[in-house]
Specification:
The protein is an alpha+beta fold and about 425 residues long. The chain has 11 helices and 22 strands. Strands 1, 2, 3, 7, 8, 9, 10, 11, 12, 18, 21 and 22 form a 12-stranded antiparallel sheet that branches. Strands 4, 5, 6, 13, 14, 15, 16, 17, 19 and 20 form a 10-stranded antiparallel sheet that branches. Helix 1 runs antiparallel to helix 4 and helix 5 crosses helix 11. The chain is globular, with a radius of gyration of 22 Å. It starts with a helix and ends in an 11-residue tail after the last helix.
Length: about 425
């Protein structure tokens, strides 16, 4: 297996031949080398946008750099894939704004090797790729994340305000306007030392296992990162896999208490109902596109700070599946928005005092044969000395405001405890 230096040399030769032949079509040049650490590689690069995804259920990761084409409209992204047969990377924000890119450089690692692809389209793009390949061999060491005491902390909703938000949601549910509303909070940490997003995500990968780990940076000033347990969907040809992840109980250092909480969660009517509402929502939204729809028995998804109820969903799509239609149909799911969908999103815009942006959106890869998207929760924006952390909770009939406050505190602590001192207790967001 070769090295990054050899890969850069081989790819440069292929692109120079492309230029000599005067080609203008989009082409993909590819080499394989021994495995490299994709986050250490991305850390050394200064081109944007940057995208990274470590898959939850397989030992594989992708990283991209730069863009040859970009699409904000889902239908145009779908048409591109069907015309050129190349993958696109990106996703949809919570409110539906899309950003999909065909990158200049794509690195894909699995257990065997790293495949490096370089995409070019015409002379200018090819010349840009040759310049980019000069930095391909660069790697920057990843460092342990130092713990800091935040200089100060701001919250979009403090505890009394959050309780008021929950009571507003419960009023709407009682009036019959909603059956579920997923409220979220944003906490802003101002720190003395800047936090490196690549070091941050490396630490999260070590500690927050059983998750997708993602990074999305459209510029050097703000990097969206997270470690989410939740899949939106995975598709291989017409096999469609999704899930309902909703219903939460704490996890602590006490194993006996965790087992008691697990048994309570598996038998708690409020949490079981919250989870089943997500199943029903997904079923209704994709029923016109599937030939079969199977739901597993409820099980537990244990994480570092919380455990969730999980139902796995397996479906066979009709012959005319399109990822663009699937994304429109199920994003955002009831697990991050509420039911009914349109009403929930409208009420969220009235109650919440911040723009979710990429939080509770979806990020992933879309291609002809295979697509996979995660739900971008358990996430944060890293902006040098400032970190904005998000957490949400599903409000249904029977929800208690203070219990929901404790739930979002625990969810947020999975990321906050990576960088903040004194954040291993119940009051992490205070």
């Amino acid at each position: 297996m070769g090295s990054l230096e050899q890969a850069a040399s081989q790819l440069s030769l292929q692109i120079e031949q492309y230029l000599q032949q005067g080609k203008t079509d989009i082409e993909r040049f590819q080499v394989k080398i021994a495995n490299v650490n994709l986050l250490a590689w991305l850390k050394s690069q200064t081109t944007y946008p940057q995208f990274y995804l470590h898959f939850r259920d397989e030992n594989k990761s992708v990283a991209t750099l730069g863009e040859v084409r970009s699409f904000s409209a889902l239908n145009l992204a779908q048409e591109f894939i069907e015309t050129y047969h190349f993958p696109l990377f990106g996703g949809l924000q919570f409110q539906g704004y899309g950003q999909f890119i065909l990158p200049q450089l794509l690195l894909e690692t699995d257990e065997q090797n790293t495949a490096i692809s370089c995409f070019v389209e015409g002379k200018t793009s090819a010349q840009s790729a040759l310049e980019q390949l000069k930095t391909l061999p660069k790697m920057t060491a990843l460092y342990p994340l130092p713990k800091q005491v935040p200089l100060h902390t701001e919250q979009q909703a403090n505890q009394p305000m959050w309780c008021d938000w929950v009571n507003q949601a419960l009023y709407e549910i009682k009036q019959g306007e909603l059956t579920k509303l997923v409220l979220a909070n944003e906490t802003i940490f101002h720190l003395k030392q800047p936090v490196n997003p690549y070091d941050f995500l490396t630490e999260s990968e070590k500690q927050n296992q059983g998750c997708y780990h993602f990074l999305w940076a459209e510029n050097p000033h703000s990097t969206f990162v997270g470690s989410t347990p939740e899949r939106l969907f995975a598709r291989e040809y017409n096999l469609f896999l999704t899930e309902a992840l909703a219903g939460t109980a704490p996890i602590t250092a006490d194993l006996k208490e965790n087992q008691q909480q697990a048994q309570w969660l598996l038998n708690d009517e409020k949490n079981l109902n919250e989870n089943w509402l997500v199943v029903q929502d997904i079923s209704q939204n994709i029923q016109a596109m599937v030939e079969s729809f199977d739901v597993s028995e409820v099980e537990l998804k244990p994480l570092r700070k919380v455990q969730h109820l999980l139902r796995k969903i397996r479906a066979n799509l009709t012959a005319h599946y399109r990822d663009s239609a699937l994304l429109k149909a199920i994003h955002p799911t009831a697990a991050v928005s509420g039911l009914p969908q349109q009403q929930a999103r409208m009420i969220l815009s009235e109650i919440e005092t911040f723009d979710r942006g990429w939080y509770a959106g979806t990020l992933g890869v879309m291609s002809e044969a295979y697509s996979e998207f995660c739900v971008a929760i358990r996430s944060a924006f890293i902006e040098r000395n400032r970190i904005r952390v998000f957490a949400g909770a599903g409000i249904v009939e029977g929800s208690e405001p203070l219990a929901e406050w404790q739930e979002i505190e625990r969810k947020a602590s999975g990321l906050i405890s990576l960088f903040a001192e004194n954040n291993d207790g119940e009051k992490e967001c205070l």
